[in-house]
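Predict the holo structure. Ligand: flavin-adenine dinucleotide.
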Amino acid sequence: MDRQNFIKNSSILTLGLSFSKLYSPLLMKDENVGTNWAGNLAYSAKNIVFPKTIDELQKEVLKINNGKALGSRHSFNNVADTQTTLISTSYLDKIISIDTKQSLVWIEPGIKYGTLGIYLDSKGFALHNLASLPHISVAGACATATHGSGDGNGNLSTAVQALEIMKADGTIIKLNKNDPEFYGAVVNLGALGIVTKMALSIQPSFQVTQEVFENLPMSQLEQNFDAIYKAGYSVSMFTHWIDKNITQVWVKKRVDAKPTPKVKNFFGATAATTNLHPIKVNSPINCTDQMGVPGPWYDRLPHFKMGFTPSNGAELQSEFFVPRQHAYKAIMAVESLHKIIYPSLYVTEIRSIAADNFWLSPAYQQDMIAIHFTWKPETDKVMKILPMIEEKLKPFNYRPHWGKLFTIAPSALQSRYPKFKNFLAMAKKMDPQGKWKNNFLNRNIYG
Ligand SMILES: Cc1cc2nc3c(=O)[nH]c(=O)nc-3n(C[C@H](O)[C@H](O)[C@H](O)COP(=O)(O)OP(=O)(O)OC[C@H]3O[C@@H](n4cnc5c(N)ncnc54)[C@H](O)[C@@H]3O)c2cc1C
């Protein structure tokens, strides 16, 4: 499918819009509105604004009746879309200060992890973890509970210690861990207002090595799942769901951790002899260095380097979280669909995420594993496969990634979050006129 058809078709599907509405003159757009990163979603906003200061942001917020904060455009669904005004945070990207006493960095929302990481490391500091790519904005990532991997690592939003949010009336609310509402405000789906400032927890900088092992039989997971994930600070498994084979295991170890011997055989998998891309046919030049070569945390915890295309490029993504104790059964439940999945798949990644206390976090009060799918840009086929995967994962009360493609009914989705009603009440209180409502929130939160 060519790029234009890809955008057109998947926009219609994910937005539930009719073809005529998508091209209605009423929706004449500012040409800067554009698409999301993957190109599967043409934003339906009429215009986009780029405030450079908090004062400019306030003026824009007061001008509009409806709009949506936009980060770095990396979500695959319409969570960041609106039919009115997109408010880009791309120029609100400053590092405000480092508070060494409290081990915090204060930042503006639009800064990307890649930029922040290099700066923090130059000052001797680090964040606890990163996602597979450094190209995403901090506020956009935290709003959807974006995560990396690691048994002891909460998702990226767990670094947030305080934040400030501009509400629909232009006033700013400040929240920190002493406020009960803080736990609803960090993973916020853009429903509460525009995050203007965040304080993230920092620690002394550390080095990480990355080793990759190839071809681990899935049968090893039944007895050794915990041992495999305990082998590093952050561990990811990749599979194409062919021959019950985990094609690659990426083991990221902190250099300051208790040293463990280098092994050639890892639960039946063999140590790679060269750098690899998770989609093996792609060049590893896009990937962070492997082969056990130590490097700074910001250049090892993500799989992909800043300045290069992460993942595949033209693609779709979905991800489902299941409680850690069901890991093996859930993986095998998905495996039973392998014949349906693999023809449309680039690669699956399986990661572990530690429990947290954020009301809308998929890891709310439960250690989770996340089964992720990087799909070929075949929207029609993928949207038919997703309900089958979700049906298989239903017995495990799965929760979908907020920023990727999913089909679960809103009532079922809401029932998976014990604090859902608290979040809804908070959203209604902070945004009584529905300034930040969009199709995604109308369906999944307000629906
Ligand atoms: C190649 C690729 C790899 C990925 N890898 C991972 C991964 O490893 N782990 C993972 O968990 N996810 C991953 N994702 C998904 C991605 O991290 C999430 O979709 C994330 O939300 C994207 O951040 P963004 O800045 O692009 O936000 P956007 O997509 O622009 O927005 C997401 C949400 O954040 C809100 N938002 C943005 N800024 C603000 C603000 N200042 N105030 C309030 N709300 C705001 C928006 O309104 C929207 O609701 C990946 C995506 C891609 C394309």
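The pocket of flavin-adenine dinucleotide is lined by residues 37-38, 68-75, 79-80, 89, 109, 131-133, 136-137, 139-141, 143-144, 146-147, 189-190, 194-195, 310-311, 317, 401, 403 (CB under 6 Å). The mean pLDDT is 93.
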